[in-house]
Sequence to fold (118 residues):
Amino acid sequence: QVQLVESGGGLVQPGGSLKLSCTASGGIFSIYTMGWYRQAPGKQRELVAVITQGGTTTYTDSVKGRFTISRDNAKNTMYLQMNSLKPEDTAVYYCNAGISTPHYSTYWGQGTQVTVSS
Fold:
């Protein structure tokens, strides 16, 4: 049974930093593209950043230059380093991954709350 577990969320002041982690486990053959999404209260879930198996990254415009997505394939773990955080970054952050077991499917983590407030 594949599981994605996020960690690293919390409360931070504007301008501060947080680092999120997402670890996949459970009968994994291969992990393909992984991504971070977020959902603020009353809004739709939106893509934050994605990273391919080979390390190519894509970011939504609002986080470019502030957030960095990375992954450690040996540890089945993805990270999101968030710097210069703004109140508008407040949301529940979810990780997503395409995983073969060997059957291919996409999986979601349970989410981790990030609150940016003074």
